[in-house]
Design brief:
This protein is mostly beta strands. The chain folds into 2 domains: 97 residues, Uncharacterised protein PF15525, DUF4652 (Lipocalin, Beta Barrel); 165 residues, 7 Propeller (Methylamine Dehydrogenase, Chain H). It is 2% helix and 48% strand. It contains 1 helix and 27 strands. The protein is globular. The two termini are 31 Å apart. The mean pLDDT is 90.
């Protein structure tokens, strides 16, 4: 299914994996019913035109506003044109990805040693710019991290790091459970739940413009959200929350969600199973 938050329209496209959106949000591509034996499809979200594009595969990403990459068992892949259905084998994946606009920084987390996972940040050239240990680190903007330190005596410090300057800014100190701690931020808010595995638990929201904290008496599995909103969900952004009222403003249809860049469209489908966080 795909839902248009602007018009309220819901399209049921039958069984399949979540769709992948083009950068402009004009096209969505997906595979049904199974990535190994299913069929590729594309939907023009402006006109409603649907294209059935032959044998399926894993729809990885759009390379531009019309062509999307379908990964193949030999790991080379094929480019499919959503508008024409034309297929083009990929001969040089490195060159293909080099042509895509890369974010200014990339983040990787590795291992769970005595000092916590190792976090590494690289710039667009591949140069290592930061390396440190933390409980968790996530992008809050394209050039900023929100970080929770390795717990000491049941507490963690939350702060942000400006990746252009390396400057760290303290946000808060909070109790933490390594089993169920969740943290996310954007340009307007930072939110965390000390432990989503307790009932009812609590969630804290920090409004960056005013420096004010708000406590909600309910644990939320905090996830990435557009500026001005909060979000929760196990598989990504499943629910949008109004930070002023802490009420749900949008709940995604059931399934694994995939969002367009502007957060106008959400596609949901099924991609296999997953484990439990609270074990």
């Amino acid at each position: 299914m795909v839902y248009d938050r602007e018009t309220g329209m819901l399209f049921d496209l039958g069984p399949g994996e979540p769709g992948v959106f083009s950068p402009s949000g004009e096209w969505m591509a997906w595979v049904s019913e199974d990535r190994f034996t299913g069929t590729l499809h594309a939907l023009n979200l402006r006109t409603g035109e649907r294209k059935d594009l032959g044998a399926g595969g894993y729809v990885s990403m759009f390379i531009d506003d019309e062509r999307f990459l379908v990964d193949s068992p030999d790991a080379t892949g094929v480019l499919v044109n959503a508008r024409t259905g034309e297929r083009e084998p990929v001969t040089d994946r490195a060159q293909l990805f080099a042509a895509i606009d890369e974010p200014p920084f990339t983040l990787e987390t590795e291992g769970f040693g005595p000092d916590g996972p190792t976090v590494r940040v690289h710039d667009a050239t591949g140069h290592l710019t930061l390396e440190f240990s933390a409980l968790t680190a996530r992008f809050s903007t394209v050039a900023e991290l929100v970080v929770a330190t390795v717990p000491q005596a049941g507490l963690t410090n939350i702060f942000t790091i400006d990746l252009h300057t390396g400057r760290a800014s303290y946000v808060a100190t909070t109790p933490v459970s390594a089993r169920g701690f969740t943290l996310a931020g954007n340009g307007t808010h930072i939110a965390w739940s000390p432990d989503v595995c307790v009932d009812p638990g609590e969630t804290w929201v920090f409004e960056r413009a005013t420096g004010q904290f708000t406590r909600a008496p309910k644990a939320l599995l905090i996830s990435q959200a557009p500026d001005g909103w909060l979000a929760s969900g196990f598989t990504g952004l499943e629910r949008l929350i109004d930070p002023d009222t802490m009420q749900y403003a949008f709940i995604s249809p059931a399934g694994w969600p995939s969002w367009s860049r502007d957060y106008r469209y959400v596609s949901v489908g099924w991609v296999g199973g997953h484990g439990s966080l609270c074990i």
